[in-house]
Design brief:
85% helix; 4 helices
Length: 130
């Protein structure tokens, strides 16, 4: 029962952090694409970098509370997961924009939700902050 509650608590906190990190990512993406006319795939990567830094700090210190772990190892594992997330997000946005002809911003939202739920939580819980 306690294990189940801990899992639910981590999942809820992870989603709050995801909203914060995704907001950072999304704001950077919109500013770069709409405000600075940067190519949407470049803006996706830059936004992901900003969101990734935010997510690592909050996940390590609040969600999974793994400050006692070796930070270099956590950073390396997080970086690998984060790279996978960037690739999945960029691929998802590209496919939605180029083949299904969905707006860039809507494509970003759809892809971020799918990758966040299916890939990011699982990899962070069981690989980065285990």
């Amino acid at each position: 029962m306690i294990s189940k509650l801990k899992f639910i608590g981590e999942f809820l906190k992870f989603n709050i952090v995801s909203l914060i990190a995704t907001s950072v990512d999304f704001i950077v993406f919109v500013v770069l694409t709409n405000g600075m006319n940067l190519y949407y795939l470049s803006a996706t990567v830059i936004g992901a970098i900003c969101g990734g830094i935010t997510a690592f700090a909050l996940n390590r210190n609040w969600v999974f509370a793994r400050q006692e772990g070796i930070i270099n190892s956590q950073i390396l594992h997080f970086f690998l997961v984060w790279l996978g997330s960037i690739v999945l997000n960029a691929l998802g946005i590209y496919l939605l924009v180029e083949f299904i002809i969905i707006d860039e911003v809507l494509s970003k939202i759809i892809t971020s939700i799918i990758v966040g739920i299916l890939f990011n939580f699982t990899m962070n819980k069981y690989y980065v902050f285990k």
